[in-house]
Write a structure and sequence with these properties.
By secondary structure, this protein is mostly helical. It is built from 2 helices and no strands. The radius of gyration is 18 Å and the shape is rod-shaped.
Length: 83
């Protein structure tokens, strides 16, 4: 469904869910990156290097979610100016 066709309540719900999911994903990826770097600098170099790939591979999802929140905020602001 296009954003322009969604109701204000649906947009607010989408914004809230996306913000929570993005914050959670960012936190978990940060923890994983720190743990992987810690493993790289200790004895487990091979495990640490392979775990570093996961946060790097999943980081585009953060970018997509952040852009989605911006688009929804912009649409809500445009609707409030019209009303």
């Amino acid at each position: 469904m296009k954003i322009q066709e969604m109701s204000n309540e649906a947009l607010l719900k989408r914004k809230k869910i996306t913000e929570v999911a993005t914050a959670t994903l960012a936190g978990l990826l940060t923890v994983l990156l720190i743990a992987a770097l810690f493993l790289c600098f200790t004895k487990e170099l091979s495990i640490g290097l392979s775990l570093v790939i996961i946060p790097l591979a999943l980081s585009p999802i953060l970018y997509i979610n952040i852009n989605d929140v911006r688009i929804v905020k912009r649409e809500l602001q445009n609707r409030n100016q019209v009303l």
